Amino acid sequence: MNNNGRLKGLAGTVLLIIINLPGGIALVNSPKIIIKDGNLIFESGLDRNISFRLSGRSRLNINDDYDLLDLLIQNKKGRTSTTLGEGNEEWTEEEEAVLKQLTLEMDSVKRRVFGPNGLQYRFFLLQNRTRVAQQLLRLYNNRLQQAENRVKILQERLEKKACLSNPCENGGSCFNIFDGFMCKCPKSFEGPTCNQDVNECALYAGTDLGCQNEAQCVNQFGSYSCICRPGWYGIHCTQRKGDCMQSSNWELCGHGICVNSNDTFGYKCICDQGWRTNGLIPACTVDVDECAVGHTACSTKCINLPGSFTCAPCAAGLTGNGINCRDLNECAENNGGCSLNPKVHCINSYGSYHCDECPLGWLGDGRTCTRASSNTDFTGSGPSTSGAIGGVASCTSNNICHPLAACNEISNTVVCSCPPGMIGSGIGVNGCVHGSNKNCLNQPCKNGGTCLDSGNGYVCLCPLGFVQPNCTAISNACVPNPCLNAGRCIAKVGEHYQCQCTPGYTGKRCENRFNRCGGVLADPVGRLTYPTGSPYEHNVQCAWIIRTSETLVLNVTFNLFELEDSTDCRYDWLQINDGRTAADQIIGRFCGSHKPNGGNIISSTNNLYLWFKSDNSTAAQGFDMEWQSIPPQCGGVFTVTTHGTISTPGSPGNYPKNRDCRWHLKAPNNKRLKLTFFSLNIEKHDSCNYDYVEIKDAISGHNLEKYCNSSHPQPLLLPTNEVNIHFHSDNIGSDTGFQIYYSTEERIPGCGGVYTLSEGQIQAPVLIEDSIACEYEIKVPTRESVILNFEKFQMAPDDCVKIYGVNSETREQSLQAKYCGDYEGRLPVIEINFNDVLVTFYGRSGAEFKLNYRSPCSFTFNSEEDFIYSPNYPNMTKEINFCTYKINTEPNTVISLYVTDFDLKDSTLDDKGCAYTFLVIEDSMGKSPWEPYCNEKTPARDFVSKYNSLELLFRSSLTSSGRGFKIKYKAIPMGKGNCGGVYTKPGYTIRLPTDEEGLYMHDMECYWIIKAPLYKYIFLNWKSFKLEESSDCNYDYVEVFDNYANAKNSQPLGR
């Protein structure tokens, strides 16, 4: 029997002894087996023995090294032989030496454990050090709390927003600085708060900005005016003639439009919105103070600006644009400044907030909470001591518990518990009283109240803000706030309340939004009525965009128009813009009862922008209008085959005012356009900014000609096959316009073409004209790429070559590179990952370039699944090939490869080493590649990549043979716990995988590669960032490299 068997037998024997003990034996005579502190103790009864009975060849061993039968049963006369009872032998000297050595070692063990410096004494010292460490920990916690409070005070001073009081006047911009603010003033004001007017007359005296030609300068608040001497005109008295056609519009009228008249000055000015004249000269140089007319829409302070106004920021605790202010939830950010350790509830209110009380065991105002000191009154006699949690006292010193209460320290906090039969907080001499908790079992005290059993009932000790009997909230009709949409509640007597609604809302509970207007009306025909059934509301701003097909324009008819009438339409008005924004050409701003433009408006584009505004007084019926979509009366896109004619609207009569017409003429690539003017009669002026026709090359974007006169220009032979023609007329003056005959001409030989060979050369033609523009298109098989290499490049700064990648399906063009004559250095080799490449060239006389292109054996796959073949599969030719297959799938996917067929062989002597014919599969993370495959070394039939990008490298030679390979790939979703990937397109978001609680998991290592086209930069925008904090970022961190992370000697840009 082995030793384990002996021990099992022994345990079984002992167990039987325990079970079969007679019941009549007294407890003091009963043997016991005791387990204490990991020790097994055998204890006999009084005056009884402990015997071990072994039979057969059984032995009683200790640690398998010593046999007790050999050490204890033997005596000096002899020992037991291998069979019990057979023969005796005398102790040998060697055995006696061993026994003596064992005795010495036993004594040594006793001294090391129980001696003066033994383990027992050291354990006692360790216990004392633990108590000291706990006391030091409490001390350090107190010091840390004090440091946090000081840092918080400093942070509040740093984050103090002095600009909330709007200290900057007259349109000044306010900037918060440490313990104050700084104002950036407009050029017409100065001073710490921009409240001092700048004297421009003194500032600009003797300069070009001041009054000229001995004119008198008159300083005004925020501006100045010049009174000219006879014979001089304009805001600076620099114009010799008071003629709108022969003088500068800006100098004559400033912020207005010049119109000739028969009065003293010979002209008058129609002022822009927000400007007026000073009554002395016609120029519009005086700002209209919109804040002084009493019709401002601001709910805050109105701030006048040159030509406009703005609203001051909303008051502290509110947010908005000044027209509408709504409550700001201060508690949503950083808990409103209330304590985070311990967490104190932040209570938001309209325009303000406050912090709840500190929890039990803490003192403070809710923003700052500190541990209660050891001398705090914890008598348990008042409401302030409700609860059983003490302060920083301990159970060993400064014990705050009732003498009969049990004291426990939990998380460095004393918790007092009354003994059975007594109730109370357990704190102080009155903390425990005789009674039971039967009446408090259902927890009748709400909102943090403490229940005290009074025998026949209970009494609730309620916190501040709640009343007995059950600690319910003090009756307040505003709790919870019944007002909707950030309305402010004002409590009245009893259960009554009143809501103060934010601008834009009305109703008893601010439930109705009266500003129900605006939107996009994208229908070819329709009707707009505003308002419906009643006069429009005050302080309303609405915007509509009416949109139709791009090939049509809008014909609008007004059935009703009734707004408050005023000079210059200052108060209520409807503004209409010929486009989709308020920045487009303005058709007019209308008010009163006269229908806009006599009741009919025709747009020049497929959009109209309508902007309605009302002030805080005098409302009317509004307006009603209908619209239809009609073909444009001017402009459009024309595909030119041979010839045609374009002309201004109304030709041969006068063209209309306020009209913009745009034509885009496009001829075949092997042609170019020629324009011949039959007539040209447009309002004449020097700047060509009022009525004009402008001609641009559509490919290069260069301006070719701009006319604003009556003449007969020479025919214009364009350098390209596309041209843009823009005609514009303003609201003053008109003429017969133009008629242009267009036709096509043969393009210069060598200018443009389509290239379909796998390699070739493109060069600019010899220029015999002033300028030229050419388009070259390179088409190679699907999924292949194109490499461009400039051999020659000699151009002027305005001569350029642009290279586009073209999507074969959508024909969408993506700019890959642009090089002009001012490019410094040698042009790089460019690889375009498109099989369709467009090269555009625009140059003047002397411009030259020559480039070589080739299509390498390089393929790019971006679809979810596809097949990959070796060249000429299944009949691989014996030729030298170096091929690359790039697979890029969507982020958060991995790539599954399935090898359908693989047969690559090489007849060289080194065929086993795959030296000349092989296939290598590697990831795109810069990691070590997988082993090359050839001959008998074939890849697994199917395997899955780690990331969403793979590269297959294939080489063949003159000694290659076999069918080649055929591989199918498919994108499959990445596992929930996986991360990393390759990003080759802009606009993606990189996220860490998270668990159900939204937290990232432990022990993650992720690699992301972001690849941009050659000579492009990568811009990273961190939307959120929250990792475990550490002083040296050695635990959780993100590293950003300007290359592959495992490149040689690579250093991160940051961690």
From TrEMBL:
MF terms (GO), sorted A to Z: calcium ion binding; protein domain specific binding
Pfam families associated with the record: CUB, EGF, EGF_CA
GO cellular component terms listed in the entry, alphabetical order: cell-cell junction; plasma membrane
Any coiled-coil regions, as ranges: 92-164
UniProt-listed InterPro entries: CUB_dom (IPR000859), EGF (IPR000742), EGF-like_Ca-bd_dom (IPR001881), EGF-type_Asp/Asn_hydroxyl_site (IPR000152), EGF_Ca-bd_CS (IPR018097), Growth_fac_rcpt_cys_sf (IPR009030), NOTCH1_EGF-like (IPR049883), Sperma_CUB_dom_sf (IPR035914)
Every CUB domain range: 517-630, 634-745, 751-856, 857-972, 979-1055
Cystine bridges: 185-194, 228-237, 462-471, 501-510, 634-661, 979-1006
Presence of the UniProt keyword Transcription in the record: no
Subcellular localization, as worded in the UniProt entry: Cell membrane
Residues annotated as domain EGF-like: 159-195, 197-238, 436-472, 474-511
Source species, domain of life: Eukaryota
Keyword tags: Cell membrane, Coiled coil, Disulfide bond, EGF-like domain, Glycoprotein, Membrane, Repeat, Signal
Predominant location: membrane
Gene Ontology terms: biological process: anatomical structure formation involved in morphogenesis; anterior/posterior pattern specification; axon guidance; epithelial cell differentiation; gland development; hemopoiesis; imaginal disc-derived wing morphogenesis; ommatidial rotation
Protein name (Swiss-Prot/TrEMBL): Uncharacterized protein
